[in-house]
């Protein structure tokens, strides 16, 4: 599959109080943990981390990641900015986007999603058990997705919810019953936002 993978590490982590990308879980930082899962599952052409800006992290932290790091080109729009940067730096037909604060995503889930990134599909996204789509663990075909994202930065002072990205794309949705048999399926999209989240993950 002609694929580049991008891992978003630019969140402000205001509720956690420290940059979540470099919080350790199971002996690895969340950023490195994400990269390892993506590499194992997808063997993409390249893996790239997306930071908020070029000065967000100290050089020694960035060097520990083992992959290149880019920064948002249109900052101030949250995850929209990260997806925009990924699309503009990709050299493939498809990209896979993963937020670093989803530490329990499994390689098997990514492989399931990848199987539908073909044909007429322009995006492939899982639906969580709470019925919400998870746009930060999803595949996007570059050309149509970039066209949608560009409209977000045109004449809007604040972005819509990120799931609005799928309104303009032919999207294949993976329903919860399609991944229910995976190990710890109920925890796949556990998000690390607070100290309580981190404590729950560590336990």
Give a brief rundown of this model.
The chain is of the alpha/beta class and about 200 residues long.
Describe the structure.
This protein is of the alpha/beta class and 203 residues long. It is 30% helix and 19% strand. The protein has a seven-stranded mixed beta sheet with strand order 5-4-1-6-8-7-9, sandwiched between helices. Strand 4, helix 2 and strand 5 form a beta-alpha-beta unit.
Shape: globular
Taken as a percent bin, the fraction of beta residues is: 15-25%
Q: How many H/I helical runs? A: 7
Secondary structure category:
alpha/beta
Could you name the ranges where pLDDT drops below 50 across 5 or more consecutive residues? none
Mean pLDDT: 89
Count of β-strands:
9
User: Cα distance, first to last residue?
Assistant: 36 Å
Order of helices and strands: EEEHEHEHEHEEHEHH
Helix content: 25-40%
Radius of gyration: 16 Å
Which strand order spans the largest sheet, edge to edge or round the barrel?
5-4-1-6-8-7-9
Notable characteristics:
7 helices; alpha/beta; 203 residues; 19% strand; two-stranded antiparallel ribbon; globular; seven-stranded mixed β-sheet; 30% helix
Topology, pairings included?
Blueprint: E1 3-8, E2 24-25, E3 28-29, H1 30-42, E4 46-51, H2 59-63, E5 68-71, H3 79-89, E6 94-99, H4 107-114, E7 123-126, E8 137-141, H5 142-152, E9 171-174, H6 176-179, H7 195-202
Parallel strand pairs: 1-4, 1-6, 4-5, 7-9
Antiparallel strand pairs: 2-3, 6-8, 7-8
Helix pairs in contact: 1-4, 3-5
